[in-house]
Specification:
By secondary structure, the chain is mainly alpha-helical. It folds into three domains: 40 residues, no CATH class; 136 residues, TerB-like; 75 residues, Helix Hairpins. 74% of the residues lie in helices and 0% in strands. The termini are far apart.
Length: 256
């Protein structure tokens, strides 16, 4: 820290005399503090706070993408307060974050890129983040084209693909259908959720199912400091993967 202050002060003195020295020292202090923050690890409380801030800010931006935020979308955001077990103070901050995301000039790419770095490029956690966002924008019964385009931008900033977005959209459609007599669309969506084609062998289907069940098992996130916050979301993903597998298994006559 002192080194940055000294460098800033000397540079300021050479450029602008006494006033330059003061300004340079202040600038050096600010730069030193910023570099120190980058170097320090993020504690669990800080990680949770930043994660929740970005989650609800991006949710606000996505919900506003079609020009208006519906009451159903607000309802989903509020439901996530309970699902993520937020305190009253965290709910207040989450509402402020949601409102911030709706504002003109909100830098979506910067926020999402920061989250990607924060989660250390953990693909499973990034997928769950995307799952939360899709649940919100689909609350009014469909994903509007503008919302879909923004979702693709979010996925790209997270290092995810269009196929990841399509897989989540398939999961959302499949979750809303009955399991007794699945339609052709439901069967197609079930394969998409598992990430395999309908021409895959039974062994390939089983491997894909087991891989996804392992990837999204709630206990996997304990080391990330977000286990309790994301447990409910991970459990949702596990249930949908299991439902998709059951659809494919029954259609093929496979054993469990």
């Amino acid at each position: 820290m002192l080194l940055f202050v000294l460098i800033g002060a000397v540079a300021g003195w050479l450029i602008g005399g006494f006033l330059g020295l003061v300004f340079g020292a202040a600038t050096g202090y600010g730069l030193g503090w910023f570099m120190l923050r980058l170097a320090l690890p993020v504690g669990q409380a800080g990680l949770e706070g930043q994660y929740l801030d970005v989650t609800f800010a991006v949710m606000g931006a996505l919900c506003k993408a079609d020009g208006r935020v519906s009451q159903a979308e607000i309802g989903v955001a509020e439901a996530y307060f309970d699902k993520l077990a937020l305190s009253q103070e965290q709910r207040r901050v989450a509402r402020e974050s949601f409102a911030r995301g709706k504002c003109v000039g909100f830098d979506l790419y910067r926020e999402v890129s920061a989250l990607r770095r924060l989660l250390r490029h953990n693909q499973a956690l990034l997928q769950l983040f995307l799952q939360v966002q899709l649940s919100a924008i689909a609350a009014d019964g469909r994903v509007h084209e503008a919302e879909h385009r923004m979702m693709l931008r979010v996925a790209q900033a997270l290092g995810l693909s269009e196929a990841d977005v399509e897989r989540l959209e398939a999961m959302l459609r499949h979750s809303s259908v009955g399991s007794d007599v699945p339609t052709a669309q439901a069967r197609e969506d079930a394969y998409a959720v598992l990430g395999v084609s309908s021409s895959a062998s039974d062994a390939e289907v089983k491997r894909a199912y087991r891989r996804l069940m392992s990837r999204y098992h709630p206990d996997k996130f304990a080391a990330e400091g977000l286990c309790e916050r994301m447990r409910a979301v991970a459990e949702e993903r596990v249930l949908e993967v299991r439902k998709a597998y059951d659809t494919v298994r029954r259609q093929r006559g496979m054993s469990k």
